[in-house]
Amino acid sequence: MAPRIGVVSFPGSLDDRDAIRAVRLAGAEAVALWHGAHDLQGVDAIVLPGGFSYGDYLRPGAIAAIAPIMREVKDAAAKGMPVLGICNGFQVLVEAHLLPGGLIRNANQQFIRRDQRLTVENSDTAWTSGFSNGQEIVVPLKNGDGGYIADAETLKRINGERLVAFRYAGVNPNGSLDDIAGLTNEAGNVVGLMPHPEHAVEAGFGPNTSAAMRSGVDGLTFFTSAIRSVVGAAA
Question: How many CB atoms lie within 10 A of CB 157?
Answer without folding.
Answer: 14
